[in-house]
Amino acid sequence: MALEDIKIKWQKIIILFIICLFILPAAVRAEDYRVIFNHLDAAGDDYGPGDYQYPQNHIFQNKGHLFDLQAATIFESESEYKIRFSFSNLTDPWGAEYGFSLPLLEIYLDNDQGGSNQLFHSGANVSFNPDFKWNKFIKISGWWIRVFNPNSQKENILNINELSLNEPGTNNNFTLNKVENDIILRMPKSEINSFQNSKMIVLVGSFDPFGYDHFRSLSNSKSYWQIYSEIEIPAAGAPRVLDILVPGGSSQRKVLAGKLPELPHLEVDTDFAESEPTIIDYLKPINRISLSILFSYIVLIIFVIYKFKYNK
What we know:
Layout: H1 2-30, E1 34-40, E2 69-76, E3 80-87, E4 103-110, E5 127-128, E6 136-140, E7 145-148, H2 160-163, E8 175-179, E9 182-188, H3 189-192, E10 198-206, E11 218-219, E12 227-228, E13 243-244, H4 252-255, E14 262-263, E15 266-268, H5 271-275, H6 279-282, H7 288-311
Helix pairs in contact: 1-7
């Protein structure tokens, strides 16, 4: 009877071992990324220069902070980059393609020689420091992803057909998905070259498919569909931006104050990732054999213990 119990226990261990051999490599491959950049932003600061308020329509009211970007994290694998934009609350009142309707994300990357110091379109009503010259511009709504370089042909932003939700001009090399309150953007490395020692500006507006450059317009009084402020907004040049990622020690209120405010950039220093490997780095393919051997030793030890116990 004791021998029969040993056989049953041994069979269970063998089955468990085989399952682990299949699951472990798959799990490691699925998460074979390393973090090369992480930036946290203040919570609840989706108020532009400090006094912007949401439109009065019910889709904007009593839903929390709908445009509050709280963090941006860049992951790197052998073949692609993944950027996770973490929001306070992503809602989808209009049934968007990617599961969020309200934020408009713009990402400007300076990661190569040359580039442009001007906005691709002027809808955000901001400006850049002379030291920041972007080479890649990624624009994201809940319906599409658009990718530009400084030489890209500009769309006619007054043409309603080009602004429609059904003709997005989406870049098929970039993929987008929403996981809870995170927007996750994936792109092959060939699309943007490298993030190493690059500069980045990230800003968030309120998406309006019929607004100038897709940005929701501003008002000096309470409005059903416009962003408004009880403090007088300049007739021209006021930023249509609700949230930005600012460097540590900077104040968003001060950065976005005035007409065509100059945005600071973030430094993407990838060197820190080399000296601080995560558990994912230790589980890369080169270590899978070692993990399998270790697991085999554990199984063997368990078997010997059981055998010794029942033979005693």
